[in-house]
Design a protein that fits this description.
The chain is built from 9 helices and 8 strands. The chain has 253 residues and is an alpha/beta fold. It has one domain: TIM Barrel, CATH 3.20.20.140. It is globular and about 45 Å long. It starts with a strand and ends with a helix. 44% of the residues are buried.
């Protein structure tokens, strides 16, 4: 199985952890970055564990927009490290911090997502998107300007018509451990075909319900698989194989 979205640079004791995760059947992880510094850290990890990591360079949208210098350095980094980068992420549009941003900053975020789309197109890389609730529709509108792009809407929360549009456009949608205890996510999963489903932990993000007080690691993926099997009326092995294949299809073999 593949964890399609994790902030790997935020974990300590990484070597021991990766060994353990591999023993437990975690084949790979998609390691996303939040800014320039963490992009460097992710690429350092990629150097150490090239087979285990799909590395992403990006800038998390739930913060102030990038300044010119950071944009410049990120694009330089992508140029020089091209061979080791499998995706652009995580990038997207702010939702939870919208109220802290001026109108001008909100507009900048939209422009910067367009900028990321252009880079992704230029480098033929998939985009890993943080674009939830009303922002999913906005992000989709921006994505449509570059129809050749493939995107992963990570931990998507959106209304059914938007979910269906995302599916029709051929993008991927992932589910976190939250699907095990949140009806909203269980309903959403019904509208996503198996061929476009991914599983992720967004680790080390903490969860509630049965995972309260449990550290978030890729070891939680098995619970997502179990729940998806129930929702899709499929055997667990089918979900296991399909989500792994989908990740490989999107992020490379
Ligand atoms: Zn994330």
């Amino acid at each position: 199985m593949i964890d399609s979205h994790i902030h790997l640079y935020q974990y300590d004791d990484i070597e021991k952890r990766i060994n353990h995760w591999q023993e437990e059947g975690v084949e790979r992880v998609v390691a996303v970055s939040n800014d320039l510094k963490s992009s460097y850290e992710t690429l350092e990890l990629k150097q150490k564990y090239p087979q285990f990591i799909y590395a992403g360079v990006g800038y998390h949208p739930e913060q102030k927009p990038m300044i010119e210098k950071e944009m410049h350095e990120l694009s330089e980094l992508i140029q020089t490290e091209k061979k080791h980068i499998s995706l652009i992420g995580e990038v997207g549009l702010p939702y939870y911090t919208l109220h802290t941003l001026t109108e001008n900053e909100q507009r900048q975020h939209m422009e910067q997502l367009q900028w990321w789309c252009e880079i992704a197109k230029l480098e033929s890389l998939p985009l890993v998107l943080h674009a939830v609730h009303s922002q999913a529709e906005q992000a989709l509108t921006i994505l449509k300007q570059t129809p050749e792009l493939k995107a992963h809407f990570h931990w998507l929360k959106a209304k059914r018509p938007v979910v269906e549009e995302i599916v029709t456009a051929g993008h991927y949608i992932s589910f976190t451990p939250e699907i095990c205890y949140r009806e909203r996510d269980q309903i959403l999963a019904q509208f996503v075909p198996l061929s476009q489903l991914l599983i992720e932990t967004d680790g080390p993000w903490p969860y509630n319900g049965p995972f309260e007080h449990i550290e978030t690691t890729p070891l939680l993926l098995v619970h997502i698989i179990q729940m998806l099997a129930e929702i899709k009326h499929e055997v667990k092995s089918k979900i296991f194989v399909e989500t792994t294949e989908n990740a490989k299809h999107l992020f490379g073999n």
